[in-house]
Amino acid sequence: MDKLVKKAGNAETDKDIATLKALQDALKAIDKKAFSKYQRLVQLLGTKGPGTLGWDRSDPDDRLVLFTESLVSLEFLRGNLPGDLGLREGQVLFLRGDQTDTDLMETVEKFNKRDDPARLLICSDVASEGLNLHHQSHRMIHFDIPWSLMVFQQRNGRIDRYGQKHQPQIRYLLTDSSNDKVRGDGRVLEVLIQKDEQAQKNIGDPSEFMRVYDSAREEEITAAAMEQVRTSSDDISDIFAGLLEDVPEGGNPLDNFVPTAAPSVRFDDLVGQAPSLFPSDLAYAEEALHWLISENPDIQGDVVGDTLRLTAPKDLQARMRYLPNEACPALDRFLLTPNKQRVYDELKRCREVESPWPELQYLWPLHPVMEWLGDRALNAFGRHTAPILRLPTLGRHEHIVLLQGGFPNKRGYILIHDWVAVRMEGPKVVDTEDIHCLLNRLKLKPGQIPNAGLELSTASLQALLPAAVARGEAVLKAERAKREVAAGEGLKHQLDTLEALKVRHFGQLEGALFTDQPEQFRRRKQEEGRNHIERIFQDHADWLHNTQVTEADPYLLLAAVFTGLRE
Predict the structure, then answer these.
(1) β-strands 137-142, 63-67: how paired?
(2) Which of 28, 134, 200, 232 has its CA 20 to 30 A from that of 59?
(3) How far apart are CA 437 and CA 446, in angstroms?
């Protein structure tokens, strides 16, 4: 307004100055008592009575994040909210864009430390991205509503993220005005909130609605919707529908790129359960560790209760060079447990004391220590060899050749994997069975097969392998043929969808050609555009083939031979 005052002197400018002064006087007359949205916020954060959020400010694990859209709103809340809520100094923290990076990170660290008195964090949009605020907080309030669905996602993601222990509670403070134009603006914001909630349920990414993938552009679309509702008598939902991409209610625009599996196929059936002779990963680790120590007494480790303790020997230390420094324990001493609750408690302790990595880690098959134990156990038999187990439960001329095999895709990743147990009477193949049936029938348990210590000639067993391998290969190829039927249908559907999408892009290219440009320029641009589209879609088609089509021949490994031979 100061710039307008300097230009005072003509009727139009003087009218604008008078209007702005009247607006300024009206705003000055609104104190916090007349500010209904602020009063609703105070009521929402109250400790008792109807309409409260249920926020317990005495609980260090129940902290609250409050987002504002402007520094003016933030400063208003800074000056009024702590007193009206009865919060002491240090219980309210602030994040704003003019703070240094050091100040921002110190504030976040205070808010995340359980023993810090902080209970409420008031933020501008500087906190919308890249900050973890979920360690002690699962509540968020939007005091001002952003005009971009991408900003919705970014803000909500500060507390609604991996590691959150509670159901996030997110509230939006909307103004209900008696003025028709202002009410229309509020209705546009209501639609944005509805679209964000719909996206979280069905799509996972609210930016899929507007499909411009830019927060500034989304704000322009929202502003256009507000302007249209002020000048149109149409229903707001119809106006917004014209500005948003046509995404069906509950639909997912990514469906075209997701393989279509048969409805009867369950995830557990696809993944399966790895067969094991041991009741648990800890039991396997204990047996492997005891064997290693018997071979090399210098290895320091044991199992106490549900905890594996191991000081990494040199070959394990060599593997650890490829791990992040914070993942390597002090003095190379690992503590592992399969007890998830103990691991959760340790993670919580680390957050409270700002420890970079938990001392107690989760014991599972893919932990570097477990992989090292498995590799050392496999190396016990040497290369190109497999163990022979004499079982008293098998007949004198009965043998079982256990094979492991499968089919990789064109990029070398295993898509089909299985075990095949080939049962033989003398040199003849009798039948085959899967690994689960085999283990159930033989009832193999650690420590229950006595080692007589007698030498055994392996020549006769070696002669069994060609017939056993041929049968195992035939079984795996039959399994591949069965699975390829369903996989081929899914691949064809994806390729057809990809081709239809390519045709749409070609059509859009034709419509976007520069009609007012010379013909030679238009032809060159058309050719460049078509080549670019063709290359992009061909790359994706090649990726589909390389990842979903397997090699024709399987790989096969001899895992073990069970025999009833007595000598």
Answers:
(1) parallel
(2) 200
(3) 18
Residue 139 parent element (H or E): strand 137-142
Tell me, what amino acid is at 153? Q
CA distance 353 to 347: 10
Q: Distance (Å, rounded) from C-alpha 497 to C-alpha 514? A: 28
Task: Find the farthest-apart pair of alpha carbons in the chain and give their distance in angstroms, rounded.
Answer: 118
Query: In 458-518, where does DSSP find H-type helix?
Result: 459-462, 465-511
- Residues 346-377 have pLDDT tens digits of 887 877 666 667 889 999 998 999 999 988 88
Radius of gyration of the chain (CA): 34
Helices H, strands E: what count in the chain?
Answer: 19, 14
Question: What count of residues does the chain have?
Answer: 567
- C-alpha 471/C-alpha 424 separation (Å) is 11
Contact assessment for residue 478 and residue 439, using Cβ atoms and an 8 Å cutoff: no
CA angle 70, 110, 112 (to 5 degrees): 95
Residue pair 286/430 in contact (Cβ under 8 Å)? The answer is no
| Per-residue pLDDT tens digits for 221-279 | 666 665 555 555 444 444 444 444 444 444 444 444 444 444 444 545 544 556 677 88
**Cβ atoms of 558 and 382 closer than 8 Å:** no
DSSP calls for 34-73 = T-HHHHHHHHHT-SSSTT-----TT-TT-EEEEE-SSHHH
CATH superfamily placement of domain 33-256: P-loop containing nucleotide triphosphate hydrolases (3.40.50.300)
For β-strands 414-425 and 428-433, DSSP reports them as antiparallel
Give whole-number Cα distances, 223 to 145, 185, 220, 226, 407, in Å.
13, 9, 5, 5, 55
AA letter at 306: D
Q: What is the pTM of this model?
A: 0.54
Angle between helix 215-231 and helix 236-243 axes, rounded to 10 deg: 140
Residue type, 388: I
* Distance from C-alpha of 52 to C-alpha of 45, rounded to nearest angstrom: 6
Residue ranges of domains in the chain: 1-30, 33-256, 281-381, 391-567
**Are 161 and 134 a contacting pair, CB within 8 Å?**
yes
- Judge contact between 64 and 137, C-beta under 8 A: yes
